[in-house]
Amino acid sequence: MNHWGEAPDEAHLPPETVLNQMEMAVIVCDRFSNVIYGNAFARQLFGFGGDEIIGHSILSLGIAEEDHEQATELARHVLKGGVWEGTFCNLRADGTTVYTRAHAVPLRHPSGAVDGTVIFAREALRSNQREQDRYGLMERIGERLAGSLELESTLRRVADTLVPQFADHCFIDLYSGDRLFRRVSRHAGDWEPPPGTWAEVGEPVSYPPGHFSAKAMDRRDAVLVEDMIQHRFTAPSESSQRLGSEMGITSVISAPLLVRGEMLGVMSLALSNLSKRPDPHYDGFDRDLLGAIASRVALAVDNALLFEEERDTALAFQKHLLPGDRPPPLDGLQVAWRYEPARPLESHGHGIQTQVGGDWYDVIPLSAGRVGLVIGDVEGRGARAAAVMGQLRAALRAFAQDDKPPADILRKLDEWVRTMTRPERMRSGWNSDDLVRPPLVSCTYFVYDAWSRVLEFANAGHDPPLLIVDGEVGELAFESEGGMLGLRAPGMGGEILFNEETTELKPGATLVLYTDGLIDRRQRDDGDYYTREESRELVRGAVAKVARGGVEAIANAAYDAVPGDIDDDVAIVVIRTAGEELAVEERTFTAEPIMVSEARRMAADAFATWGMLDEQAELACLLVSEVVTNVVLHATATPQPRREMVVPVPAGPPGRGGEPLSAPPPVQFNTEFGTGLDAFDGGTFDEDDWNLGADLGRREPPTKEFRLRLRRGGDAIWVEVFDSDMRLPRIRSAGETDEGGRGLYLVDQLATRWGARPTPDGKAVWFELPLTPS
Fold first, then answer.
1. 141 vs 155: CA distance, rounded Å
2. Are the C-beta atoms of residues 281 and 96 closer than 8 Å to each other?
3. What sequence ranges are listed for the domain PAS (predicted)?
4. Distance from the CA of 770 to the CA of which of 204, 381, 632, 703 falls in 20 to 30 A?
């Protein structure tokens, strides 16, 4: 009976026969690390044909130069009786590379002395360290792709991860329509290809048939070119092929970017002489790895493209709700504005959202060259906030045309916001309806008169703007912060007060209006966040450095003041008052018919001084006469009560009760105010009515006045007529035979704009005409 460890009688085989059957290389070295034996698998693994390495150093196995020190450590450790394990990079005789996993043990004499080394080796897909690097690379790619929904950021993160760790060159080409365009061209060591060689970012790319990138897209699978020296292909151009030879491109992998059956493009990696690597060639493992990476990149690119399409739609929607790119020309004001959407919120744990928000701003031309300015912010973000913002802007523009004080405008806007409720099914699954509360909106509305430099404003819970005067940066003081619009929901008691405030801006004074996205949630380098006050100080400091610069420079400095990505959208409006005085003529007249010609003469003199053409001046004087005549005839005349006069009638026969019969109805003298040339109430005016009161012994009303004010702007003139009558004019439809009622119709047809607005002590009728210098 045979015992364990004893071979059966019929199984006595030579040791070499057994060793040559092993699917593992066996190398035996003497004490001087010279090879004295290698089995058949060793010759296959290391790529030598016969016994040519026998008697030569272990380095003759093709151990790469960077692993020579490791081979020395192996011999030193094993000859001392230890066991060694590690990985070598071996260069075969045919120029290919193989990674081998080696396990070395001492070769002992029967006496126990160490006579040499026995090395057992097999092919390793990667060394432990390289294997960890590759799988770590996959993890980092996944993390970085998950951290971005913007296409450019996604592609940049991929290239930064792959170069230089896994490649010396990274190219990503994406289809736009039916053409490929270079989207990424990243190279190790910040090297850049010379112009006219490899395609630059943004340029179209055309791969000829047989090119490895074309093959990858045709086969819809990764293509490996392990050794470029043995591979011949047609390059896109001679210059690109020449540069590849000069760079010493050694190995290339191209992988298609394929998602849901759609070809998005191709990604290519290459190794070259830009960096020294243990193995300057890719192999099958690298090809499979890049194929897996390309699948993830394609999915991320597809998501980014879909997100950017949604974002572009939302931003286009919001852009059309906000004013245009450039402010309109305004007399006495320089204006610059800037709107920046926030970064996507997925990085802050709030889910994926578009970048649109509820920040808005506007510049509204008002009567006689005055300007309405607004800055506001609707709570929240997304499509609903943007839709509410668009409705608010439209509503405020409509309310502003009434030319009422800012506090009245905000009160009216607050009432309108409070009605913005809608029924919505509760998400908890209950079968009842719930009312969505009105949105909360912070807002400040300003009205600026460039000729008087008076700024009127009212605030609804918004941050005060910065005020720059003579290079010093402060804040425009708000006496009352005011409640936010929509704060008082329907059914709630109390009242939100909006106080009217007024200040005068000095020549060259600058206001910086902004929304809270500028100062909210900005991350420090240490991971903490700036407080709102710290952010305000940073903005003040940045603005102070460019306080004497242009309004665009101030807007840019304010936006860049606080470091870090913005978490909310930002709106910035910078306005600066003119340093020079604007032309204005003003005079008060008694409300007498003779003063119509005096007012016309004053206007003619002013228009001539301002350089108006004769034809324009005549038209302007005609309209001045119409408006002033309207005031003299109607607005400044005090309507008198109706007067009754009873005409005695002889007593008739008594009635049944012995009383005389009732007298006939009294004769009425209608002294009610008529409307003449431009009737406000559609009635008629008779000059005999003027003397009726004297005939009845009535006291004459005190003499009234009107004020004519002429303003000259850069490309228009404004005419205003002030009086103490509260009634606002309207255009009447005059009949063919009517002698009056056409004055305001002429103004409406011939003026660029006209209107009337209430004033604290009456009203102002105004019109605008274009100014063309002679």
1. 11
2. yes
3. 18-82
4. 632
| Residue (of 395, 133, 119, 88) closest to 285 by Cα position | 133
- Give the C-alpha separation, 236 to 198, whole Å: 9
* CB burial readout 89-114, b (16+ within 10 A) else e: bbbeeeeebbbbbbebbbbeeeeeeb
The phi and psi torsions of 673 (rounded to 5 degrees) equal -60, 125
Distance CA 228, CA 249 (A): 7
756 token code pair: 């009337």
| CA 581-587-591 angle, 5° bins | 155
CA angle (292 as vertex; 205, 300 as ends), nearest 5: 65
Q: Determine contact, residues 732/678, Cβ cutoff 8 Å.
A: yes
The string of DSSP codes covering 627-644 is HHHHIIIIITSPPPPPEE
pLDDT digits (tens, 9 = 90+) for 284-303: 888 888 888 899 899 888 88
Give me the architecture of the 15-125 domain, per CATH: 2-Layer Sandwich (3.30)
Most confident of 54-58, 136-140, 379-383, 573-577: 573-577
| CATH 3.30.565.10 residue window(s) in the chain | 584-636+703-770
| Residue carrying structure tokens 């704009």 | 753
Which CATH superfamily groups domain 130-310?
A: GAF domain (3.30.450.40)
The CATH classification of domain 323-417+438-486+498-577, taken from the options 3.10.20.80, 3.40.250.10, 3.60.40.10, 3.40.50.10190:
3.60.40.10
**Residue 413: which of 381, 365, 458 has the closest Cα?**
458
Distance, C-alpha 181 to centroid of its chain? 25
User: Whole-model pTM?
Assistant: 0.60
Contact 233, 212 (CB under 8 A): yes
We find that the CATH architecture of domain 584-636+703-770 is 2-Layer Sandwich (3.30)
CATH 3.30.450.40-classified regions of the chain: 130-310
Counting Cβ atoms within 10 Å, is residue 528 exposed (0-12), middle (13-18) or buried (19+)?
exposed
As a whole number of angstroms, the distance between CA 729 and CA 726 comes to 10
Q: State the average pLDDT for the chain.
A: 80
Residue 29 to residue 71: CA distance in whole angstroms: 12
pLDDT digits (tens, 9 = 90+) for 660-684: 444 455 444 443 333 333 433 333 3
